[in-house]
Amino acid sequence: MAKAKAAAAIVIKEYTFAWEGTDRKGQRVKGQSMGPSESMIKTQLRKQGINPLKVRRQSTMFAAAKKKKITSSDIAIFSRQMATMMSSGVPLVQSLEIIGRGHDNPAMCDMILGIKANIENGSSFSESLGKYPLYFDDLFVNLVEAGEKSGALETLLGKVATYKEKTEAIKKKVKKAMTYPAAVMVVAVIVTTILLIFVVPQFEELFKGFGADLPAFTMMVVGMSRWMTANWVTMGLIIGGSVFGLINLHKRSANFRRLTDRVLLKVPIVGDILYKSAVARFARTLSTMFAAGVPLVEAMESVAKAAGNIVFTEAILVMRDQVSTGQQLQLTMQQAGLFPNMAVQMVAIGEESGSLDQMCAKVADFYEEEVDNLVDSLSSLMEPMIMAVLGVLVGGLVVAMYLPIFKLGEVVG
C-alpha cells in the first residue's frame, strides 16, 4: 500500500519539444509537444500518423522568453472553443489537440497540451484542469466535474463559457471605470511636473532682467518650480514607494482590503459601478452553479470567491452558514443588508417557483446592463472633466508666467 502511494506521488517532469516531420500524405508538418523525453514525443507523433524527422528539446530560457502570460480572456476563449468543439461532436482529446496546436500563445498551448496528456494518462478532464489552479478556479473545475458525472459535459461547458464571457465583460467595464479617473490624474500630474521643471525655469531667467517685483501668483509658481526642480527625484521615489507599498499592503492585509473596498463602494459613480458589478457577479455565479446541479450551500462557497469585493465575500460566507442551517436564501440576503430589494425579491420568486437559476440569470442580466450604462455615463462625464482639469492646471501656469509680461506692457504703455 505504501509503495503504491509512493509510486502515485512520483511526478513525471515534462518538457517542451519542437518537432518536424511528415504526415500520412507526405506533407511536411511541424509543431510543439509536451513530454518527458524525446523518445516519448516520437512515439506520440507516430500514433498520430506523423513520421518524426527532427525532435529537439527547447531550452527553458528560450521557452520562457517566448511565452506570453496566460490571461483570463485566454481562459474565456478556451472555454467557448471547447464548448463549440464538443457540441459539434468532436471528442474531448481531439478538441484539446486542435485548440492547443492552433493557439497563438505558447504558454496557453503548453497548458492545453499538458491537460490533454493528463487525460491520456488516465485523469478525468476536471482533474486535469485542477492541476492548473492558477487559471482554473474551483468554480470552473466543479462545473466541469458536474458535467462529467451527469453525462452532459458539452452543455456544462457551454454554461461555463457563457459565465466566463459575462464575468470577463463586466470585469473589463469595471476596469475601464477605474482606469479613466486614474488616467486623468496621472496625465495632470505629468503635464504639471514637466511645466514646473522645464518651462517655468526658462521664464524665471527672463524675469530676472525685469528689475521689478513679480506678482504674488507668479512668485508662488516660481517657488513651486524651484522646489520641484530640487526635489523631483525624492518626490518620484516617495510616490513610487507609496504606490508599491499600498499595492503590497492590499495584497497581504485583509483589514486594509476591507477598508479600501468599503471606501470604494462609497465613492460617487465609481462606487455604484463596483456595487452593481458585485451584485451581477453574485447572481451570475449562483445561476450558473445552481443550473449545473451544484447544491446551494456548496455553490455559495464559489459565489463568495467570485464576488470581487471583500465586503460581499464576507457577507456571502455568512449567508452560506445561515443557508446550511435551513434558512431561505432570500432571508439571508435581507439580513446581510447589502443586496438591492429587486434582487432579493427576484430570488424569493425563484425559490418559491423552483426556478432560482433563471431568476438569478435575469438579475445578472439587469445589473450587467446597469453597469454598462454607468460606465458609458462615466466616460461621457470624464471627457469634459479632463479638459477642465488640464485647462485649469496648464492655463493657470501660463497665466502665472505671462502676468509679469502684461504688467511690463502696462508700464511701458
Automatic annotation (TrEMBL):
GO CC annotations on file: plasma membrane
Keyword Transmembrane helix carried by entry: yes
GO biological process: protein secretion by the type II secretion system
Transmembrane stretches, start-end: 180-200, 229-249, 385-405
UniProt subcellular location: Cell inner membrane
Keywords, ordered alphabetically: Cell inner membrane, Cell membrane, Membrane, Transmembrane, Transmembrane helix, Transport
PROSITE patterns, sorted: T2SP_F (PS00874)
Start and end residues of each Type II secretion system protein GspF domain: 78-201, 282-404
Protein family per UniProt: Belongs to the GSP F family.
Name used for this protein in its record: Type II secretion system protein F
Organism of derivation: Stenotrophobium rhamnosiphilum
Lineage: Bacteria, Pseudomonadati, Pseudomonadota, Gammaproteobacteria, Nevskiales
